[in-house]
Amino acid sequence: MRHSRIAGLGFHVPDRIVTNDDLSRWMETSDEWIRKRTGIEERRWVEGDVGPAELAEPAARKALAEAGIDAAQLDLIIFATLSPDINFPGSSCLLQARLGVPGVATLDIRNQCTGFVYALAVADQFIRTGMMQRILVVGGEVHSSGLDISTRGRDVTVIFGDGAGAAVLTAAEDKDQGRVLLDHKLHADGSQHDILMVKAPASGLNPRLTQEMLQNGDHYPHMVGQAVFKQAVVRFPEVITEVLAANGYTPADIGLLIPHQANLRISEMVARLLHLDPDRVYNNIQRYGNTTAASIPIALTEAVAEGRAKPGDLVVLAAFGAGLTWGANLIRW
Ligand code: COA
Questions:
Q1: What percent of the chain has pLDDT over 70?
Q2: Does a cis peptide bond (omega within 30 degrees of 0) precede residue 201?
Q3: Active-site residue 113, yes or no?
Q4: How many CA within 13 A on the CB side of residue 292?
Q5: pLDDT per residue over 169-226, tens digit each?
Q6: Is 260 an active-site residue?
Q7: Beta carbons of 209 and 201 less than 8 angstroms apart
Q8: What is the per-residue pLDDT across 117-154, written as a single tens digit (0 to 9) for each?
Q9: Is the CB of 26 under 6 A from ligand 1?
Q10: Is any ligand 1 atom within 6 A of the Cβ of residue 263?
Q11: Considering only CA atoms, which residue is closest to atom 21 of ligand 1?
Q12: Residue to probe by mutation, ligand 1, list 21, 37, 43, 260, most atoms within 8 Å of CB
């Protein structure tokens, strides 16, 4: 039976650090409010015209270098993002051009905070069937250019950061090689798409963007924060338990949980509900904010570099976000 293994990891964030105090100069907020409600201390925001494909390039090159693979050897590039560089074509095409590998297949995934979890599951299927051997999976976002930095947007704007993370998956015949993807569980509930969304520009509106929409701030993200929070603390434990149970495990078997970095309070509550000690849950939202599809590959890369995932550990990646979408990947490290 063929499996996929994570042969390389990498991430890249912009140099510019935006602290909570910086934000409180532009809007009515405070370091105390942001830390207490979200755990976030600072985030990285791009300067000038930088899109997610540009952030993804160094992340991808690091992951390829660790895997010992040349970009030209890739069969597919999957790019998970909710903030594509342009409306079309997808950021996977732009990243492929940056890597200079015409001919390599590309695919964009639009599943918001759960994008990387879905992308890993999709990549794993191509490798398991034998159709492909080497796949680059990227999560990359630039939020900062699409946030309302006035007090009107403060509930959303303080949460989000920019960044990119990447994993290179290769085919493995032997499960014991480690870093092997075991299973995935994926879910969605589109009936609640409006509790976290950007309304405009929209193909379903004619015209797609008006001066009135701009004045209303319809081009900025809108979130019913408490509704998102309440769903998240149910769906995270549910899908983590589901992927474990399907493989004969329980939360007690988790070596390391890497939750999508939505909000430190959500991650802490999920850990409590699953009876996991804090040392078995990785969090870096304090330094990067919520980078949606990029948060899991950034956190996984840092966790591995810090030695938090030991060979043989059961590692669970789990996410919840707009869509609504949620899911989990089970990995034997
Ligand atoms: N700074 C200061 N005050 C703020 C603020 C900010 N950045 N954002 C909102 N407030 C104010 C509100 O205006 C409100 O004031 P009021 O009581 O005078 O009306 C008050 O704080 C409470 O707002 P509320 O929205 O009820 O706060 P909350 O306790 O729900 O916390 C979130 C807000 C966004 C931190 C919280 O709902 C959350 O984390 N939700 C999940 C978000 C998430 O994870 N999103 C990503 C999905 S993957």
A1: 100
A2: yes
A3: yes
A4: 27
A5: 999 987 778 999 999 999 999 999 999 999 999 999 999 999 999 999 999 999 999 9
A6: yes
A7: yes
A8: 999 999 999 999 999 999 999 999 999 999 999 999 99
A9: no
A10: yes
A11: 155
A12: 37
DSSP H stretches of helix in 5-114: 20-26, 31-38, 52-67, 91-99
The residue whose C-alpha atom lies closest to atom 20 belonging to ligand 1 is: 155
- Residue whose Cα lies nearest atom 26 of ligand 1: it is 226
| CB neighbour burial string for 68-94, b if at least 16 within 10 angstroms, e if fewer | ebebeebbbbbbbbbbbbeeeebbbbb
Work out the pLDDT band at 19, boundaries 50, 70, 90: very high
Domains of the chain by range and CATH? 3-172 (3.40.47.10), 180-332 (3.40.47.10)
Supply the Cα-derived Rg of the chain in whole angstroms. 19
Given the residues 3, 12, 111, 113, select the one marked as catalytic: 113
Q: 283-326 pLDDT, tens per residue?
A: 999 999 999 999 999 999 999 999 999 999 999 999 999 999 99
Does the CB atom of residue 333 touch ligand 1 within 6 A? Answer: no
Q: Given this model, what pLDDT does residue 174 score? A: 79
Q: CA 291: distance to chain centroid?
A: 6
Q: By alpha-carbon position, which residue is closest to atom 8 of ligand 1?
A: 155
Torsion angle, alpha carbons of 55, 281, 234, 226, to 10 = -60
Helix (H) or strand (E) holding 257: strand 256-259
| CA of residue 130 to ligand 1 center, whole Å | 47
